[in-house]
Amino acid sequence: MRRGDIEGLRQLERDMRRLGQVPQKVATKAARAGAAIARKAAKANAPVDTGQLKKSLIMKAERKVKPGKKVFGVMPSPHMNDVLVKISKRGKRSYYPASQEYGWTTNGHYTPGYRYLRHAIENNDDKIEKAVIETAGKEIDKILRG
């Protein structure tokens, strides 16, 4: 070893090059793990009338903007709109999941929403963060070992 060399520097440089090529699937798996926690909490907190709202909750991936980034949204499935869109006797359309989240007005009286989606994130942010970090760490370790 020459003077000024740091022990393990070559190994560190090799590992850093490998990490620079972390596949998109690492970000996807980590984001999916966090979103799964939010989806489970949203299903647990969703109001139940017929059960269709709980049944409709899905995780949908946003389109990729940058490499190494992945975002999932927890939302009602668009495929269930025929069940979730309500039409009043006067023909006025309302979107049931939105009214349950944000509230509604009946005869001038406002009824606040349940905020089941918002609370799914706010009440579980530590669990979500931990799941994302653990999953990403495991996947990166697999890459470095392989």
Query: Strand percentage, roughly?
Result: 15-25%
Oligomer: single chain
The number of helices is: 7
Largest sheet: 2 strands, antiparallel
Count of structural domains: 1
Radius of gyration from CA coordinates = 22 Å
Mean pLDDT: 88
Please bin the fraction of helical residues: 40-55%
Distance between the termini: 27 Å
Order of helices and strands: HHHEEHEEHEEHH
| Strand order in the largest sheet | 1-2
Number of strands: 6
Task: Give the structural class.
Answer: alpha+beta
Which consecutive residue ranges, at least 5 long each, have pLDDT under 50? none
Shape: elongated
Model description:
The chain is an alpha+beta fold and 146 residues long. The chain has one domain. 53% of the residues lie in helices and 16% in strands. It has seven helices and six strands; from the N terminus they run αααββαββαββαα. The chain has a two-stranded antiparallel sheet with strand order 1-2. It has a two-stranded antiparallel sheet with strand order 3-4. A two-stranded antiparallel sheet has the order 5-6. A hairpin with a 2-residue loop joins β5 (103-106) and β6. α2 packs across α6. The model has no long low-confidence stretch (mean pLDDT 88). This is HK97 gp10 family phage protein.
